[in-house]
Design goal:
This protein is mainly α. The protein has 3 helices and 2 strands, in the order H-H-H-E-E. Helix 1 packs parallel to helix 3. GO terms for molecular function: protein folding chaperone.
Length: 92
């Protein structure tokens, strides 16, 4: 059984978003990180499943482009907290 190119692109975009979320939310010292990571994964899964039976190529391309944009945005603008001595500061 062969996977269609559009399905393979969707799988790739989904995995890329999960990887980005893992990178952005891992290593953060706040316990809220776990909650944010779990919520992000749930939302990603929900959005991908919403369009799993979509056959309109234009819609699929638009959604895959959006997934790439979200991944890039998270990578570029993700904020990590770093503990310094007694306090903590936020840094990119």
């Amino acid at each position: 059984m062969s996977i269609s190119p559009s399905k393979q692109a969707a799988i790739s975009a989904y995995r890329n978003l999960l990887k980005t979320q893992r990178e952005v939310f891992t290593g953060n010292i706040f316990s809220l990180t776990y909650i944010l990571d779990k919520a992000a994964r749930k939302e990603t899964y929900s959005r991908f499943m919403q369009y799993k039976n979509e056959s309109n190529v234009d819609v699929l391309e638009e959604k895959l482009e959006l997934a790439d944009q979200v991944s890039s945005l998270l990578r570029q603008n993700g904020v990590k907290a770093v503990r310094e001595d007694e306090g903590s500061t936020l840094s990119k």
